Amino acid sequence: MSPSPTEPGDGAPWVDRCDASVRSWADEAVRRVVADANRSADTHLHVFPLPPEWGIDLYLKDESVHPTGSLKHRLARSLFLYGLANGWIREDTTIVEASSGSTAVSEAYFARLIGLDFITVLPRKTSPEKIALIERYGGRCHFVDAPPAMYTEAERLAAETGGHYMDQFTYAERATDWRGNNNIAESIFQQLGLERHPCPEWIVVGAGTGGTSATIGRYLRYRRLGTRLAVVDPENSAFFPGWVTGTTDYATGMPSRIEGIGRPRMEPSFVPSVIDLMMPVPDAASIAAMRHLNDVTGLSAGGSTGTNLWGVWHLVARMLREGRQGSVVTLICDGGERYQHSYYNDDWIAGKGLDPAPYRKAIDRFLAEGVWEPPRAP
Questions:
Q1: Could you say which of 172, 188, 206 is where a domain stops?
Q2: The total number of structural domains that make up the chain
Q3: I need a labelling partner for 45 at 20 to 30 A (CA). Which of 145, 182, 201, 323 fits?
Q4: pLDDT grade, residue 182 (50/70/90)?
């Protein structure tokens, strides 16, 4: 006779952890997070004007139009759903994160959406515009002087409050469904479906956690697509040298001046094996490309978008040299309104010892004459 649920076969009492109230709260929290996605239309895919005789189309996927104004809105949504589905986030959980700013803005938004407290650990030099946004969504900011200290301080605060450390730098690559489910890669290819080059030669992105590059790189392989993935990296970041040398624990210990990308260490969510090409980008080149975008199109973006675009100009020039036509896609990661005190401020730029002028001259000449002669990095 088979044992019944009330009569375990081994004589030991069953441990029943099913709490209807806990599941009911989690169900409602998931509903709210998914409903937020349903209320948001897909992000725009802008066409950047290139000389028609080149036969190359450049598309900019504008992630700044998300409700919280950046690409990190996708990541925050995925991290909350991942934490809820794993049972890590409950009705009384304080959410704690380590962030350079934009992820914290988006996570503060989702924490408020489901009624939870949120604390973020930030570098003290985070832009005041981002800090104001975090606080507007009800988040609390805890500052550290040295960016590498964010990790241990976030862990300490989570333990102290009995909260959950979201740890975007570990979970970004696994929280997003890279096979599809309207992730950023699937969205790009759907939007390109009616374009003349629907399968781009290159997709160009930066790396902060590494989650976006991991999602796109895996999707390209899963769908057996010929598109190659290029990742650009700012000064002081560990990603490029770690990728080149194959050193998984490479660290610089230095903060990036381009907020949102570049890290002082190789992060767990960074997946080097899905990347076809990496390019280091001088910070002055990022600022020049960001400002050029604004002048030509009226689109205001942050420094990481400029990093993306500097990589794009290298690749478009390469396609021209090789006589290849096709398309290239990159991201507008966030809006320039967050950086009026910094990347759009000439005094701030001069104070950092940066000179975007030679890089801007190279971009202007390239688009006018097709001649790509970037200045040598200092």
A1: 172
A2: 2
A3: 323
A4: confident
Coil, strand or helix at 233:
strand
Enclosing domain of residue 312: 41-66+173-369
Question: Which tens digits make up the pLDDT trace of 188-204?
Answer: 999 999 999 999 999 99
**Per the domain annotation, does 237 fall within a domain?**
yes
From first CA to last CA, the distance across the chain in angstroms is: 80
**What does the block give as tokens for 221?**
């392989």
Whole-number Å distance between alpha carbons of 66 and 74: 8
For the chain, state the CA radius of gyration: 22
Cβ 181 vs Cβ 148: under 8 Å:
no
| DSSP string computed for 140-197 | EEEEESSGGGHHHHHHHHHHHHT-EE--HHHHHHHHS-TT-TT-HHHHHHHHTTTSSS
Amino acid letter, residue 23: R
Structure tokens of 68?
């919280």
Model confidence at 147, in pLDDT bands (50, 70, 90)? confident
> For position 58, which CATH number holds?
3.40.50.1100
The total number of residues written for the chain in this structure:
378
**CA–CA dist 366, 315 (Å, integer):** 12
Judge contact between 332 and 297, C-beta under 8 A. no
